[in-house]
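INTERNAL AUDIT FORM
Audit reference: QA-55
Scope: verify that the stored structure record matches its stored sequence.
Auditor: D.O.
Record contents follow.
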Amino acid sequence: MRDEQRLPTRTPESRAFAERVQVAMALCARLNALPFDDLEGRRVLLGEIFGGTVPDSLSILPPFHSDYGLGATFGERVFINQGCYFLDLGGITLGDRVMIGPGVTLTTAGHPVELRERYDFITHAPITVEDDVWIGAGATVTPGVTIGRGSVVGAGTVVARDVPPMSVVTGTSVVERKRTGSAG
């Protein structure tokens, strides 16, 4: 994963992250329980989730879930449809006029592939979505990916590498990349 960083588990830093996850999840639960027309209440809670003022033109339709919140930034006129998940420890940057369909997952975190390291670290890398991108329903964007300006990610697509500007990408598949060491 490009730009991967590691957060060691069982450390003060990982405990602070876990505590922030609890706060973000509680705030998201409150957001998702608001009446749909309580736009001011939604704006206040989004500011708490994301740790500061969000653009007035940001539109996030609940339910919405974030595991950290402090790693996400938004351009102007961003629209995020219902049922989206932002796992943003590694940082999520959304440019201007980004549209995100329902059920999209942007995940910046994971664990090492090697079994002997898997439980000792949380890996993370930023996701950047440039201006004028449309991400279709149910797509998943993985850590370290940049989606170039003006591109379209088709519904259900798994994006595991950079998307060039002004491109349309679709599809899912399982591709064995390598074999890890033995389990024993």
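Auditor finding: record pair retrieved intact. The helical segments are 12-33, 39-50.
Action required: none
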